[in-house]
Design goal:
This protein is an alpha/beta fold. The protein has a domain of 211 residues: 3-Layer(aba) Sandwich (Rossmann fold), CATH 3.40.50. Helices cover 36% and strands 17% of the residues. It has a 7-stranded parallel β-sheet with strand order 3-2-1-4-5-6-9, with helices on both faces. Helix 2 links the parallel strand 4 and strand 5.
Length: 303
């Protein structure tokens, strides 16, 4: 019987992960949640602020899966935003890692992001590559990773850091959800062929990867990129989503000046759409873990 603690259980990944473990009988689950209105049959630890958490809350937990934090990129690095991200992504992580060490938790699995490294044009980024993150989200995730590595260095606890690429699947949020909504409403203009490269992963495979490392005994203190192993251009993504929604791709395409206007209006959104965002998951593949889903296999209910 493996006893698993999960922070951020009410998020999209958290809910999927709980469902994943509920399909088996070999797990006991403890949920760490910020409010008292979370309905679940599992043992719960409620708190208003992470400073309320104590060593006894983590006793008898074998593996902590730390999902909680601010999960989406921000383009406006306001003082308020920066403080929020520092508190949620760095200070919260530091607190729970220290409590894990003090309570003899065996392993902590941290959900990070490929955003800890700035995308590089024409390069597929591996776990050992590093380039200063583009924004406060990536920077705070990177610092959270380093907090875990520093705090656990002289302890017996094992850490696994999972850097997720762009997630697709039911109820996902962010720019991909906006793109899907525009396609469904019929207001998404056609995207001409653009030869950029983007890495993605289905939410089910992301959850399965967490389950894999919960049970794994071979890998200690490692960082892994999570992708489905396929490189997609924004043109590929547009074509696949149009087909999944049974939409006909128009024969006309946007003129070049429109793309320049988009770049002027929202540089952040433009970069996310048209820049390279390619990451290698060869290291993950060598563990024996295999993803099951590709974007090309989806239908209108799969994202």
């Amino acid at each position: 019987m493996i006893r698993i603690g999960i922070t951020g259980p009410n998020g999209i990944i958290g809910k999927k992960l709980i469902s994943f473990f509920e399909q088996e009988t070999d797990y006991q689950i403890v949920l760490f949640h910020r409010s008292g209105d979370f309905d679940s049959k599992h043992r719960k630890v409620f708190f208003k602020h992470y400073d309320e958490l104590k060593v006894s809350d983590f006793k008898n937990i074998d593996v902590l899966v730390h999902l909680a934090g601010n999960a989406h990129n921000v383009s406006t690095n306001s003082e308020k935003n920066i403080k929020k991200y520092i508190d949620s992504n760095i200070n919260f992580t530091k607190k729970v890692t220290k409590l894990c060490v003090q309570s003899n938790v065996k392993k902590i699995i941290f959900m990070s992001s490929v955003r800890v490294c700035k995308p590089l044009h024409g390069k597929i980024i591996e776990e050992v590559d590093w380039k200063e993150p583009l924004n406060v989200y990536g920077l705070t995730k990177l610092k959270a990773e380093r907090c875990i590595q520093a705090i656990t260095k002289k302890s017996k606890i094992n850490y696994i850091i999972l850097r997720s690429s762009l997630v697709y699947g039911p109820n996902v949020k962010g720019n991909l959800a906006i793109l899907v909504k525009m396609i469904r409403l019929g207001i998404m203009p056609p995207i001409s062929k653009i030869d950029n490269s983007k890495s993605m992963i289905h939410i089910d495979d992301l959850v399965r990867s967490i389950g894999f490392f919960v049970n794994d005994e071979n890998y200690r203190n490692q960082v892994f990129n999570l992708t489905d192993g396929t490189m997609y251009s924004i043109s590929d993504i547009y074509r696949i989503l149009m087909s999944a929604n049974k939409k006909t791709i128009p024969k006309w395409t946007l003129p070049a000046f429109f793309l320049e206007l988009l770049k002027f209006l929202s540089k952040d959104f433009y970069q996310k759409l048209f820049f390279d965002d390619a990451f290698s998951s060869e290291k993950l593949k060598k563990t024996g873990f295999k993803t099951h889903k590709k974007l090309s296999q989806i239908n209108e209910t799969d994202y």
